[in-house]
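Lecture 7 notes: from sequence to structure.
We start with the chain below.
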Amino acid sequence: MKTPWACSPPEVLASSCRVPIDLSHSTGSQRQPFRAKGANFPLDTTINENTQLNQRQLGYLSGMLSNLTTQHGCLFSDPKGLKNEIIFSLKAVGYAFVGRTGFLERVNIIGKLLKHNRWTTPKGYERYDAKGRAQKAKREVRERTWAEKKSLTEQGDQRRGNILPISQALPTVRSHRPPPDIALTASISERINDMQKLAERAAETDCTPEVKAAIKQQMLRRQNEIKQMMAKPQARQ
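Predicted structure tokens for the same chain:
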């Protein structure tokens, strides 16, 4: 992870060749040197369950998630919710990353987990944290709505096409054929689910053009993978 940056005031250099400036007629207001937002706050502090992250640390977390998206192609369906999960995990020093109490040290561990797609919702987040409970309720509503839409779509397809269950549609003479490749079917379903999540993320209001471009590339890659998987069984026949 890159070293955090901060803007510090320029050093005052004495030079004998400079002409003194007469400030006797000045209005008394002087331009202050530019400082980055939150630059006055410490960054690598010791973290505990009662720590309130300062403005600089919160900005650092936002920058980490942005870099993971733009530089490593990581896509997050709910960036705001993920940031809340990270903050909860940072402060859970008693059971998450035990023995690591430095802010940067804990953030680096979390960044690696996100980069390698190994991040999971922290234990207790959706039960004890108010934002976690709200996030869980929101997810359950979204999943329930998706399940209802899927059910209605399947019912409509059956009414239009009079589709029979698979057990009735396949004649008994085909029972000698080998069972379908369960692993292949699972892999295809997994990629379809990924594409659905990517489409939902692209439709969100806070999705930037850069993230949408990355989502498009990910969806094209998933489509190509599905085509290749479906072509393999045909080649063996």
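Points to note: The mean pLDDT is 76. The helical segments are 55-72, 79-91, 103-115, 125-128, 130-161, 166-169, 182-202, 209-236.
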